[in-house]
Every structure is written in C-alpha cells, then in structure tokens.
Amino acid sequence: MSAVPEPFPKPSTVKRALSGHAAIGLLAGALLYLVCLTGTLSVFQAEWQRIEQPHAPEMTSISPQALQRAVVAVLSNRKDGSTARRLSIHLPAPDLPRTIITSDRQGVQVKTDGSLAGQEETAWSDFLVALHHSLNLPGKTGSMLVGALGVMILALSLSGILAHPRIFRDAFRLRARDKGGIGLADWHNRLSVWSLPFSVAIALTGAMIGLASVTAYALAGFYNAGDAKAVYAPLFGKEDKPDGTPGPVPNVAAALTYMRAHYPAASPTFIIVRDPGTQGQAIQVRAEHSRRLIFAEYYDFAADGTFRGTVGLADGKTGQQLTASAYKLHFGNYGGLPVKLAYLLFGGALTTICATGVHIWLGKRRRRGLEEPRLRKAWDAVVWGTPLALMLTLAVRFAFGNHSPFVLLFWSTLALAILAALAPVSPARFRRGLQALLIAAGGLTAAWAF
Amino acid sequence: MLPESGEPLRIGGRMLTFVLVTFAAALLAVGLSVGLSSLGRIAGWSEADRNAAAFLFMPLAWAAIAFSILMQGRRQGQIKVLLATSLPVWPALAAGALA
Predict the structure, then answer these.
(1) CA distance B58 to chain A (A)
(2) Can you tell me the mean pLDDT for A356-374?
(3) Are A297 and A328 in contact (CB under 8 A)?
(4) Which of A14, A21, A151, A374 to mutate to test the interface with B (most CBs of B within 10 A)?
(5) Total-model pTM
(6) Which B residues in the span 53-82 are in contact with A, Cβ-Cβ below 8 Å?
(7) Taking Cα atoms as reference points, which of A344, A346, A43 lies closest to residue A191?
C-alpha cells in the first residue's frame, strides 16, 4: 500500500502564511488603501490639471523663439531680484497640451506667442500626487514610508499565494452573491489573481522609487564618503558645480532648435535650466523616445545652447535604462488613454483588494462570535471616509480656489470620520451615512465644477 | 493581529515582531543590496549597473525577509531567519571594501 502523499504546501504552512498575510494587511491596511486609491487617481494627474484650470492656453507645440521670450519674461519678473535655482519648462504633450514654466515653486502658463498668461493653479492635483507620493509628510520620510508600503504589497502577494493553494486553480470561481463571507473572499482572491502582475509591477517600482534614497545613503556611506548625489550620478548624470556670478539669459531656443534639427524623432517634454542667469547655468532637454518605456533621455546643453551630449538613459548602461523605465511603468503615463484606463481598472482592483481584506478578517472574527462594531465602523470610516475627504477637498478647490488648505481639510475630515466610529450608531447605518455623504460631496463638487 | 476573546494581548511580543519585520528586515535588506553592489564591483559591473541592481534588490530582499520572519511560528525561528540572511552580507561587504 502506498503512503498518502503529503499535501503541498503543508496545512501548517498555509496557516502561518494566512496569519502573516492578515498581520501585514491589518498593520498597513489603512495606509495601503489610501496610497492605492490616490495612486489610481494620480494616473490622471494631467487630466485633473486641465479640469482644475480649464481656461489655460493650450497648444500642440510652441516655437523656440516664443519659448525664449517666455523664459526672458519669467526671469525678469522675479519681484525680489533674486535668481531662481531652477527653471522647469513643461512643453505641450498630448495629455497636457500646455506650456508651463515653473520657477522654483511657482508655475506660469505661457501663450503660443510666448507671452505669460497667468499663474498655474493646480494646487489640488499637486496635493493629490503629494498625498500618494509622501502622505503629505515632510522631507524624504513620506516617500520612504510609501516605499515601505510597496514592500508590504510584495510580501502580501507572496503570503497571499501561499495562503491560498487553490488560488490559481480557482481563478474563475466567483460566488459573488454569497452573503456569508465567501462572496467577499472570492472577490478579494479573484481580483488579487487577476491583477497580480500589475500589483507586483506597481509595488516593486513604487518601492524602488520610494526607498532609493535609503539604499543610496547606504551605498554613499560605503563607497562615496556619504555623498548620495554621487550614487545617482552614474545613472542620471552629474550636475556641474554652481557658479553664482551673474551670466546671460539661457538660450533655450537654441537648445530646442538643435533638438528639432538633430533629434527629430525625440519628443521634448521638459526643459530644465539649473541656476538660470548665472555663469554656472546649464540647460537640459528631456525628451521621450517613442516605443520606449524610459521616461526620457537627457540632452545636455551649455547656456548658449551648444550641445554637450546625452546622459544615456536611452542607450547607456542597462542599469540606467532599467532605472529610467521604472517611472513610466509605475505612473502609467505611456501608451496614452488606453493604458491609463487599464491602470484605473487594475488600480481600482488593488484598492478594492485592500478594502475587502480587512472586511474579510473582521467578518471571520464576527462569525467566531467576536462582535466589534466600533472596529467595523472605523474600517468603514477609512474605506468611505478617504474618498469622502478627497471629494470634499476637490469641492473646496472649485468653491474657494487654489489656495485652500487641502492637507488640513483632508486629514481632519478623515480623522473626524474615524472618530465618528465611536458614536452609538449601528455599523450598517454608519456605512450608509458615509456613503450618502460621499454621494452628496460628489454632487456638490460636480455642481461647483460645471 | 488582535487577540481572540480571553487571549492575552502580548503587546511586547507583537511590538518586537513589528520591529523585526520592519526595521530589522529593512536594515538587513539594505545590507544585502550593498553586498550585491560589492559583488558587482568584483565582477566588473559598471557603477550604474551596480547601483541600479542595489535599488531594485533592496525592496525585493525586504519583502522576502519580512515574509520569512512572519512564516516562523516561534521567536527563535525569526532570529534564525535574520541571522541566516545576514550571513552573505559580511563577506560581500568585506570583499567590496577591499576591491
């Protein structure tokens, strides 16, 4: 008689994986949900900017001469007489057909003829992206925390697969109408399987971007005498030493003309001028290459527009190309609207997975007789309160303008929603109340926006 | 995870697991990624390739170590995971320092 083969993975392994999966999910669930939701919405950053400021001048391209006029106007417009540390020029692109010159922090819209059209007013879009990128925390702390959340998604993917030995076999089994917890678990597991490649790609690239500074500091401490910039230099190029002696106006027109003549296949998206108006200034044109995942190749120019060379993100070392490809893969800004819609779909799935995970855990405890109405309401406050708080900030943006305190409003609304979970209201009623408030806030936003 | 009804809270134990999964595992992952960079240096990789490999490897290593720690039923097992994963760090770092 042959022995019965041991199941793989062993039941004890499955149990531990499930326990680990739940532990990570509970520990990071709320922040994961917030980051996934804001990340999904941030894919449409360009579209949000156009909604926020619908009447800004739009164009399919701008002439080098017109751009030069705009740069001169921006540089001479500085009221305090100081020089900007950096000029960042956004060139017209299909999803954001606008020319915007940002001097340090303030952006200015540019007309087709190069005259200035007024200030850029996209504070809500910036707030949304900052919320996703750093949870509105100062310095590098926020991006490191968000990077750590990416690591947690990777660990959740690993433990989730091991905790559910039949997860791939049951990939198309969906008992959606079951009310006893199976329906919710099926949605959670099916969405997890279907979106697994997306989740892993997004989590890994996000973690890589968010935690790069941690690794860079360690590498710098070991090899570069603590100079983290020296770690990035072989990847993104080295910056010249600043020289604050007054210099001429940077010849951005010459750089752009050179690009059009010598690299007609490359599509310039940004022009960066470091230390403009000084002897140490330098121009860098960042251009996309079609059918490439790299976010750009860097084309370096001297202040007078003389071409110096490329950094090598398109054709340099493998490490350069790999690093440059992580960004677009994460942000979903390649392939136009179809890719953005796919990111909306999969990002929505990942957000739903985060929300349902904790609901499943709470449901299991409830079925074991552990009634925790406040905990259930607190989780509902996170799940419904987060989009509600976001919607309120958007409504306030349209009602009261660009300078509204979005960070304060968002976090205080979310905190209030979680505190409201302590109120003596049944969980079902509490959830319905939050959903009604979300719909009302949505209506209010639409009314103010249109 | 929250305790079942009547189960002790074990706050200290849970906090220690949290510290191991987050800070200790992250630190070790950083060490491993620097170690990988050192090995790349010995193997003659360019600086760009070494640094990019370290950036990519760090989150992967952290996720794998965190997962392995949580798969251990006992504290002793968790410490063993940390010790075992730290083994490649030391010679790689030493070799990198000497290269």
Answers:
(1) 7
(2) 90
(3) no
(4) A151
(5) 0.93
(6) 53-56, 58-60, 62-64, 66-67, 70-73
(7) A346
Which amino acid appears at position A197 of this protein?
A: P
pLDDT tens-digit map of B2-27: 666 667 778 888 899 999 999 999 99
Among the listed residues A139, A142, A126, the one whose alpha carbon sits nearest the alpha carbon of residue A31:
A142
Cβ–Cβ under 8 Å, residues A311 and A238: no
Residue with structure tokens 């751009």? Answer: A67
> Distance, in angstroms, between A234 CA and closest chain B CA?
5
Look up the ipTM and state it: 0.92
With beta carbons under 8 A apart, name residues in chain B contacting A143. Answer: none
Residues A380 and A356: their CA atoms lie apart, in Å, by 10
Which residues in A lie closer than 8 A to residue B72 (C-beta atoms)? Answer: 16
Alpha helices for A280-426 (secondary structure H): 318-331, 336-367, 373-400, 406-419
CA gyration radius, chain B: 17
Residue A105 reports pLDDT greater than 90: no
For A101, the 3-state DSSP assignment is strand
Amino acid at A268: P
Q: Which residue has the higher pLDDT, A171 or B57?
A: B57
Separation of alpha carbons A385 and A69, rounded Å: 47
A407 touches chain B (CB under 8 A): no
Residue A114 contacts residue A66 (beta carbons within 8 Å): yes
Report the pLDDT averaged over residues A179-202. Answer: 90
Contact of B80 with B24, CB cutoff 8 Å: no
Q: Cβ(A181)–Cβ(A168) under 8 Å? A: no
Which helix (H) or strand (E) element contains residue A87? strand A86-90
* Cα(A66)–Cα(A86) distance, integer angstroms: 20
**What pLDDT is attached to residue A6?**
74
Residue A82 has pLDDT above 70, yes or no: no
Q: Is the pLDDT of residue A399 over 80?
A: yes
In percent, the amount of chain A with pLDDT more than 90 equals 80
Give chain A's count of helices (H) and strands (E). Answer: 14, 8
Residues 6+ apart with CB under 8 A from A247: A277, A278, A279, A280, A281, A303
Rounded distance, CA A408 to CA A341, Å? 30
Q: What is the mean pLDDT of residues A199-226?
A: 95
- Closest residue of B to A223, CA-based? B97
Q: What is the pLDDT of residues B30-72, one digit of tens each?
A: 999 999 999 999 999 999 999 999 999 999 999 999 999 999 9
Q: Residue B67 is nearest to which of A155, A208, A222, comparing CB atoms?
A: A155
Contact A330, A290 (CB under 8 A): no
Query: By CA distance, what is A369's nearest residue in B?
Result: B5
A101 min Cα distance to partner chain B (Å) = 31
Query: What pLDDT is recorded for position A282?
Result: 95
Asked if A242 is an interface residue toward chain B (Cβ–Cβ < 8 A), one would say no
Structure tokens belonging to residue A120? 């850029």
- The answer to whether residue B35 neighbours chain A at the CB level (below 8 Å) is no
Please, are residues A219 and B51 in contact by the beta-carbon 8 Å criterion? yes
